[in-house]
Amino acid sequence: MAVLAATGAGLLGWFSGRRLRGPAHIYTQDRELLAAMADQSADAIIACTLDGTVTVWNKGAERLYGWSAEEVLGTPFRGILPPGADPTLEQALAVLATGGHIHLEETLRIRRDGSSLLVSVTVSPIRDQHGTVVAAAATERDITEKRRFQAEERRAVERSARAARLESLGQLAGGVAHDFNNLLAIILNYADFLADEVTGDGAADLSRIRDAADRARVLTEQLLLFAKREPTQVEVVDLNEAVKRSGELLTRTIGADVRLVCRPCGAAVPVYANRGRLDQILLNLVINARDAMPDGGVVVVETGLTEIRGVSAVPLPPGRYARLTVSDTGTGMSAEVRDRLFEPFFTTKPADRGTGLGLSTVYGIVGDAGGHISVDSVPGVGTTFRILLPYAAGRAVGTGHRPVQAGPGGDGQRVLVIEDEDYVRDLVVRILQENGYRTTAISEDAAAGVDLTDVALLITDVVLPGRSGPAVAAQLTARCPGLRVLFMSGYSDAELRRRYDIPPATRIVQKPFTAVELLATVGEALAPVHQP
Fold this sequence. Notes:
By secondary structure, the chain is α/β, with parallel strands linked by helices. The protein has three domains: 29-146, PAS domain (Beta-Lactamase, 2-Layer Sandwich); 234-400, 2-Layer Sandwich (Heat Shock Protein 90), CATH 3.30.565; 414-526, Rossmann fold (3-Layer(aba) Sandwich). It has helices spanning 2-21, 29-40, 59-65, 69-72, 86-97, 144-195, 200-226, 239-253, 275-291, 335-339, 358-368, 422-433, 469-479, 493-500, 515-526, and strands at residues 44-49, 54-57, 102-110, 116-127, 133-142, 235-238, 258-263, 270-273, 297-308, 319-328, 372-378, 382-390, 414-418, 438-442, 455-461, 484-489, 507-510. The strands form four sheets. Strands 2-1-5-4-3 form a five-stranded antiparallel beta sheet, sandwiched between helices. The chain has a five-stranded mixed beta sheet with strand order 7-9-10-12-11. Strands 14-13-15-16-17 form a five-stranded parallel beta sheet, with helices on both faces. The relative contact order is 0.07.
């Protein structure tokens, strides 16, 4: 077929000449054979006179376009050309009449049923026995599937590169957030220690420090969400109810010149997610839409169900998914902006109007929930975000979780503390000692020789400069099987348990923790184990 495609125009030079010169001409057997081969070619081979009358229409053309040779031969046929192509055809025939050749890598054609396709075209002039150009011959090959495959391959490469870039940024964000969490644990708790000792203007200044640290804590949580390293409590939530509940608040938030329209679908849409995180998704997307409509407009929030079957452009396994769509009539965005949209700290807003973490947070939440987010945007028309979340069919809708409450404090229990960050170690020791516990702070290197007599609990950071916290804990529990263990870390619960094989029953307190959170987790770790 490739040989035929390459020589098709030459074959037509002879074959069309045969039609033009009439039956009196004597042809060799080889030429008859070549003509038969051209007629059987999978490519469309077409010839016409310089006024556009079709003189050759092979079986490949019949298969490709749907018209038979009997319908086309001898007519000034234009059926395969898209509307408005006549001037282009006239120009092409003029070029061919002067002996020129035409090659098009890609051009549009129309089939008999009205469907369109892409073809590559090679057109050559046909000369008579005197060398005069009398006609033109074209070889046309269907490249529709080839172009579709190339486009899909290109999109897959782009998705892979974008995912790799976001993954790399996520690793960086997670590491930075971990270090910030150590610092914030110190700032938050020492600010609390001073709260009862400082009065007047000093107390007001201290309150501002505490507020700033709380805001920084929120930012690190957003970074960890993007990095998929922030642990969340999940339950079955009706997406419709989440939209209705958030809609009431958001209507008052986005301003009078922006209209919010919520369109929940008729049936319940249960998803397995964190309620607060769903609210955060809606808040970030709606506020982002508002900022894209400086002169006002409409934001539409819709829910529904969709099915993914077989191979899909969405990188999710086949199955049923809940769909959340947020659309606006705003300024839209360019392809360059859309490509970087979910990167942390990337923003097109002024420096005083955003951190660039809103959409990266949404990306992290959706990915952590096993879903997918995509965006379509046209400059000057608007933007649509589409989120797919796993459908939680047949599961009861949850009612929320209790807030953390501090335990009653210690009763003289001895706690062993291992933490490589000096200020964090001192902080943990102080909180425990001020709440009825006896403490012994040691380094990881000293763990092998430590006296474990009457030690009730080991508190250790997971990531230590030498051995890991779980390795140290394994060594100590081998010597003292009844020793309870509590880990500390600024990384996510799920990631740590997977990496260090930490069993579900062993607790991990997340940094930055408050005194209340630390004491509550210590109390849980020391609670008696009830046998069934």
